[in-house]
Amino acid sequence: MIALLAMAPSSQAESLRERPKAVVELFTSQGCSSCPPADALLSSLGKDDDVIALAFHVDYWDYVGWKDTFGDPANSDRQRAYAKSWGTPRIYTPQMVVNGKQDVVGSRRAEVHSAIRSASLTLPVDIESDAGMLEVEIGPRAGTADAVVWLVTYLRQAQVQIERGENAGKAMSYTQVVTGRHMLGMWEGEAGARFKLPLAELAAEAGDGIAVIVQEDRNGLPGAILGAASYER
Q1: Max intra-chain CA distance, the chain
Q2: Cα–Cα distance between 215 and 212 in angstroms, integer?
Q3: pLDDT tens digits for 62-75?
Q4: Where does residue 179 fall: left (phi above 0), alpha (psi -120 to 50 degrees), or beta otherwise?
Q5: What is the DSSP letter of 232?
Q6: How much is the pLDDT for 207?
Q7: pLDDT tens digits for 169-181?
Q8: Exposed (0-12), middle (13-18) or buried (19+): which is 31, by Cβ within 10 Å?
């Protein structure tokens, strides 16, 4: 469990990254033969400062003979939650979700780039690192409904030799692999939100990257992403 401390002013804080315009979530699997082109596309998107790219490896392809080394039932549940939020029973891989609002087949490069070009995140999220602490500040926005603040940890890169399943024999390179997702708290439109996290404790989490995402909640289902920021150690 990641501990939260009361936010304190800092005179030596350093801002870490520019503000993005899109959060791209890829639902993928090492057992899916259609996924490698989408995995490669996500890797290229992850190099763009305008995009926070995250790979959620699902577990429902494990039955074909290869257990995804990053697969997590929680990731499959998140994908199903998006589908339920949109009123459809259908889930598939590779699926990219842009800002929690639009889904695109993850291997269709032109459609993915088109969705990102038209995307925007209107709520500024500021992350700063100072004196061993990671400080998160999200300003208020009157008239906006409250939203959930999530902390996502990820691995920037990993190599996997796949021995069975549809991708048997392939040596795959994966990036932005989600390793955990934790609820930090609520962002209130009238008051904003501030969090302070100990970097030493974050370092104990699996992964060398962190994303903070502010997302609308639709009766327990994911809605639109309002703002986001990331930090890589």
Answers
A1: 54
A2: 10
A3: 998 999 999 999 99
A4: alpha
A5: E
A6: 76
A7: 999 999 999 999 9
A8: buried
DSSP 3-state of 27: strand
Contacts of 42 (CB under 8 A, 6+ apart): 24, 26, 28, 53, 55, 96, 106, 175, 176
Nearest 5 degrees, angle CA 25-CA 27-CA 31? 150
Q: What angle do CA 80, 83, 89 make, to 5 degrees?
A: 90
- Contact at 8 Å (CB) between 109 and 26? no
Distance CA 168, CA 101 (A): 34
Phi-psi domain of 217 (left: phi exceeds 0; alpha: psi -120 through 50; beta: other): beta
What is the per-residue pLDDT for 205?
66
Q: For residue 93, give Cα distances in angstroms to 30, 108, 189, 205.
A: 10, 12, 35, 27
Tell me what percent of the residues of the chain surpass a pLDDT of 90: 80
Contacts with 38 (C-beta within 8 Å, 6 or more apart), sequence order: 26, 28, 93, 94, 96, 105, 106, 107
Cβ-based neighbours of 197, under 8 Å, separated by 6 or more: 2, 3, 4, 5, 133, 134, 135, 136, 151
Query: DSSP string of 45-68?
Result: HTT-TTEEEEEEE-STTGGGS---
Whether the CB-CB separation of 149 and 213 falls below 8 Å is answered with yes
